[in-house]
Amino acid sequence: MTLLPRRWRSRFGLDEVIPWTRSALLSGLLECLLALIALVYWYSHSVTTWAANALDSAMRNGPEAQVPGQAIGFSALVLWLIHPLTWCVGYFALEGLVRLLAAVSTEQVVATLPLVGIDWIYGKLSGRAPEGDAKHAPSAKVQVQEFVSSLKQGVMALRLPHLEDQCRETGDGGELLLEIHASHAKAEWKPPRVVRMGDAYYRLQDAVQGKPPRPFIYRLRRLAAGVPGRTVLVYQSPLPAKETPGPAI
Prior knowledge:
Largest sheet: 6 strands, mixed
Number of strands: 6
Oligomer: single chain
Number of helices: 6
Radius of gyration: 25 Å
């Protein structure tokens, strides 16, 4: 399921049933391991076969008879390196590693690129709007920017310790906002998602980059009322109950 693009996953309605982060971690690990195993098998089978055929031709006084034995082995290795199948399997090993790191460091679920490409092509052929409401996915440019941003966040997160979030109130044009400073990114926290803290509901206004050791800052505006649902994010505030922000704005 985690290999599917975000739009496809949302259609199954399993957002609250499947632990997406752990599933993405396991999926990325399995993809990387299986691709590495396939790469080793392909290397063992292809290089051995090509080298054996070349040596057999040399022993029969074929064209390879004029080539030194070390060169035959090196030629088989070079042929393996430039073979399209090697690049294809190697890509999935790298993709699995990226998906694993994204799940560990930023808790982001990264779909496999071939399925993302199929979804993009289908959107183009069907005339689907490239961006907009929840029915539509972001444009390809936005998806690439989000992917690069998640990789940068992952590299940053690997160098930072896991710290408890800090919550504080700030003024914004006479209105109070709740700021949550986190040491690591919160994958699903994208504006304008609704966040529930205890019995209070907040609208996520924006997410900005701050300074270490808590470089991820999320600003929320309290709502007068809220309704529990599948898309509502549940957050356990590190603040004592008496320090919870005041009346709704």
